[in-house]
Amino acid sequence: MWSDLIAVGRDPSTGGYRRLAWTRTDHDLREWFSAAADSRGLDVTVDRCGNQWAWWGDPDANPGVVTGSHLDSVPDGGAYDGPLGVIAAFAAVDVLRGNGFAPARPLGIVNFCDEEGARFGIACAGSRLLTGALAPDRALALRDKDGVTMAEALVTAGRTTSIGRDDEALARVGAFVELHVEQGRGLAERESPVAVASAIWPHGRFRAELPGEANHAGTTRLSDRVDPTLAYARLILAARESAQRHGAVATCGKVRIDPNGVNAIPSLVTAWIDSRGPVGDDVRAVVAELTALAESAGGTLTEESWTDATTFDTDLRKRLSHALGEPPVLDTGAGHDAGILAAHGIPTGMIFVRNPTGVSHSPAEFAERDDCLAGVTALTTVLADLAGSPA
Amino acid sequence: MWSDLIAVGRDPSTGGYRRLAWTRTDHDLREWFSAAADSRGLDVTVDRCGNQWAWWGDPDANPGVVTGSHLDSVPDGGAYDGPLGVIAAFAAVDVLRGNGFAPARPLGIVNFCDEEGARFGIACAGSRLLTGALAPDRALALRDKDGVTMAEALVTAGRTTSIGRDDEALARVGAFVELHVEQGRGLAERESPVAVASAIWPHGRFRAELPGEANHAGTTRLSDRVDPTLAYARLILAARESAQRHGAVATCGKVRIDPNGVNAIPSLVTAWIDSRGPVGDDVRAVVAELTALAESAGGTLTEESWTDATTFDTDLRKRLSHALGEPPVLDTGAGHDAGILAAHGIPTGMIFVRNPTGVSHSPAEFAERDDCLAGVTALTTVLADLAGSPA
């Protein structure tokens, strides 16, 4: 199952994945999902926002237990972030069937679209649209780096632009459990190959626009320059220093320089900042300092997205912990579709699989085979528990 | 004549020009040059490197007087940098013909290709290849931002890849005079609309490669990060500070961040630095400091090009100054094909046309119409002087 997926969207030069939403590669991933469901006799439905659901049992009979994750990636991402949760879901269904398990409620597997937000800039776009946390008009107008809107990308992918909150699809989800590779070193030096999630840190993405005056890099005196790269450099250093001081993290991983010519003083630097931390007020303090810095340079800092801290359903977390023999409990700086569903009020939990290096969003992302199999076993146990009784 | 050229390669959203070498836009500019020559009965030749020459008189009879410039631009460049020198050349020929002037030696107009180096990174590529200052193998292997080599671009443009030093074409150039819009404020507050050039500053382009460790921007502790944007930020600030201290200029106008994702710590930052100044040793001192900084961050700083100071031919400069009534004499931080030909030993001079703001390499680049016409008059005077006698 894994081998069919491993080559899709892989850049041979880096070994990393470029699985961006609503591309040809994404189409191939969705075809793979449909085929995996078909070969197991699961019924595939697609909600208004394009998220794919594979059902064992009638999803409209009573609220089901859903697992799954996403198949898209960041640019040059790893093989596990997302796909591990989808593959483990199918594998768990195979084990349950092999054991002659008969679900007392519908059991679903979901592939959320556009989780990374790598193309249009908003993470968890598929689940945010589904729950109404992201307004359709705003989403459709988002542009990728080539200027293509999400609306245009949807049409190119053969999808409708009539997207938005889908209460019918949401009503089918009685509980959601997402299995995901851990993205830090929370399990690296512990005995357990799996953990249960307690919370997701508050998380924001911000866009700095720092204007300059385009001019010739050879003939313009230093004193005559308005060079926005200087403010950009100060912003990068301030983001790190401020995050350190406030016990948060902040990253300037993306930039666009106009015109980006070696002999031209730029007219504009657009820089993106990602900031998170255990405490929302601390993250807000970092952002306030960076806003002041951008404004002192004649620029702006605009919030592109903000997600409050998510605490997973306490009862469900206790039930998962109990079923799994009380493994470690971790919080995480990474956002997930599970967090969006939890914020919407659906009982939601997560299982993390050990990451020996903590590396993620990189071709070097890795999990041991035995740990992945332990994740499948854990997910199987949890699904048997949750779907073994009617609610 | 200007109106036919004004729309070619113009980006309607910025008003700037995107006339990159060996593109469809470049093809249109070359067609314009051929048509301008044809309509005047000038014979067009193309040398081994693709530079276009339009001749009044037999260029193989005896060494000619050549004027002209280039038609390509930086990304979002202005309308005057390059085209003013080509258009003024055709206009000067029109005036000389209208006056019944009979040249005693061949008179040529040249359009040097790829002067800005905006696509493949090496400025004055056409004249450097022509004189042998740039090795053909190195040039052909250069890649643009999409990974296309110059060799591939030449084939796509219908050109040969058998490029290189062309002694036959060089032998036709007895003297070269390039008219160019001034790119600083050297004439902005002076009475004269034109100046004669004394020298071109030494000039280098350098590429910094700063490696990091790709990782997740949310889950990686600050202390576990190898984030290359921090070294990049320090490089930007050090370039400015060091240039200021050494009486030079330095600019970080271009960068590539891999993978350039908002939620990914980059694996690599590649930054380009352009540095120039009146004194070569001062520029070298700036570069040495930045090299040390890049190396202390585990990176490298590689020289992509270096051009020593160019002092224009003293006799020719005096002759131009005398013919033009002793206008101001300026040095310049901008590189030009004239500098490449001068370094090759061809008697070479330059005429600058006043730039009221000093802005260049920007859509805001500008010269007053009267000053452009004064430039044509000056060029006409100089050509009449130089081509009026056999040598």
CATH class term of the largest domain in chain A? Alpha Beta
> If you compute it from the alpha carbons, what radius of gyration of chain A comes out, rounded to the nearest whole angstrom?
22 Å
User: Kindly, what is the distance between the CA atoms of the first and last residues of chain A, rounded to a whole number of angstroms?
Assistant: 31 Å
Oligomer description: homodimer
Second rung of CATH, namely the architecture of the largest domain in chain A: 3-Layer(aba) Sandwich
Sheet having the most strands of chain A: 9 strands, mixed
Count of discrete alpha- or pi-helical segments spanning 4 or more residues of chain A: 12
Detail the poorly predicted runs of chain A.
none
Roughly what percent helix of chain A? Answer: 25-40%
Number of domains of chain A: 2
CATH topology of the largest domain in chain A: Aminopeptidase
Quickly give the structural class of chain A.
alpha/beta
Q: How many beta-strand elements of chain A?
A: 15
| H/E element order of chain A | HHEEEHEHHHHEEEEHEEEHEEHEHEH
Averaged pLDDT of chain A: 95
Percent strand of chain A equals: 15-25%
The greatest inter-chain interface is formed by: A-B, 70 and 70 residues
Global morphology of chain A: globular
The CATH homologous superfamily of the largest domain in chain A corresponds to Zn peptidases
Overall description:
The structure is a homodimer of 391-residue chains. Chain A has 391 residues and is α/β, with parallel strands linked by helices. Chain A folds into two domains: 2-201 and 309-387, Aminopeptidase, CATH 3.40.630; 203-307, 2-Layer Sandwich (Alpha-Beta Plaits). Helices cover 34% and strands 23% of the residues of chain A. The first copy, chain A, contains twelve helices and 15 strands. In chain A, strands 1, 2, 3, 4, 5, 6, 13, 14 and 15 form a nine-stranded mixed β-sheet that branches. Chain A starts with a helix and ends with a helix. At the A-B interface, strand 8, helix 8, strand 9, strand 10 and strand 11 of A face strand 8, helix 8, strand 9, strand 10 and strand 11 of B.
